[in-house]
Amino acid sequence: MENSALKASFGERYRHHVIIRDQLITLAGGVVDHLLTVETLAELIDAVNLARRLKLEYVVIGQGSGVLFSDVGFAGLVIINRTKRLSIDVTKSQVIADSGVLMQRLIVESASRDLTGLEFLAGLRGTVGGAAVMNRQANGVSLSQIVKSVTVLMPDGQIVTQPAQFMDYSEMSSRLTRVLANRLDLTETPELPVILTVTLQLSRNKKEEIMRKIQHFSQQNRAAWPLTLPSLGPVFKAYQGQPAERYLSQVETKRLVQGRAKLVPKQPNFILTHTAGLGASRTSDIMTLTLELQRAVAKKFDLWLEPNFICYGQWE
């Protein structure tokens, strides 16, 4: 019933029984029952509302840099968000971006209009919506510092614009990620608001200065993030204001390998999820390696690092 209804509504953009790792930049994950790509807000709203009517579990993702799907599979609908509308109001120094807009496109187009404030994310992967949900952080700056408002599709079907306070941001998290992270049963996905657009409050600056910052932070991020490798990360959130790398770099991690899952060399807060010639890591191995890292840090520092990714599907 579900696949026929989705096929009737979305045609060839809907697919049944798809290996999700082929759709994600992490190149990890098993089979999902239903997969749909949307390109407009109207399609995103229709897809979510249809899933709700069908009582079908669903997940909206961008590039998937902060999610991990089980090897066993996900018995629901994965909606890949490719919405791309972007509006820039130079007089107010504001941008309104669809949640599927790539962050790097937003940085470049804002800079072209002499708007500054996004340079700290230069070169990093992901979409505006994903960054807003996860409260993406780099170089000591968080996206929450420039979020003015979000327009969301509420669980009751209403579309409302909410101030940034609605997201209840904390370091590298929001109210949405905390609900998902605190699930006792990882097989269940609670009904949450879906972010449609994000309004960011930027400021004016000379284009030359903005481009200088973009180049600087791009170099910084390339050194700190394995941007050319299929990987999951940052695996852990900061702990009481201190980056997780501070603790991970002081524990013995060279021998921490689980199956094909291993730490990215010199970047202990990232797990390599796909190895050339060997293939993808099992997500169960990634989860086991994450737990081993938590235990190693807990043993040395008596603290527990919190994962910075969301799990979906059936976990053994």
From TrEMBL:
Pathway: Cell wall biogenesis; peptidoglycan biosynthesis. One of its GO terms (molecular function) is FAD binding. Its EC number is 1.3.1.98. Residues 28-205 form the FAD-binding PCMH-type domain. It catalyses: UDP-N-acetyl-alpha-D-muramate + NADP(+) = UDP-N-acetyl-3-O-(1-carboxyvinyl)-alpha-D-glucosamine + NADPH + H(+). GO terms for cellular component: cytosol. Gene3D superfamilies: 3.30.465.10, UDP-N-acetylenolpyruvoylglucosamine reductase, C-terminal domain, Uridine Diphospho-n-acetylenolpyruvylglucosamine Reductase, domain 2. It is an enzyme of class 1 (oxidoreductase). Its main location: cytoplasm. Keywords: Cell cycle, Cell division, Cell shape, Cell wall biogenesis/degradation, Cytoplasm, FAD, Flavoprotein, NADP, Oxidoreductase, Peptidoglycan synthesis. The keyword Repeat does not apply. It comes from the Bacteria. GO terms for biological process: cell division; cell wall organization; peptidoglycan biosynthetic process; regulation of cell shape. It is found in: Cytoplasm. It holds the Pfam family MurB_C. The keyword Cell cycle applies. Its cofactor is FAD. Transmembrane segments: none annotated. HAMAP family: MurB. PANTHER family: UDP-N-ACETYLENOLPYRUVOYLGLUCOSAMINE REDUCTASE. Cell wall formation. This is UDP-N-acetylmuramate dehydrogenase.
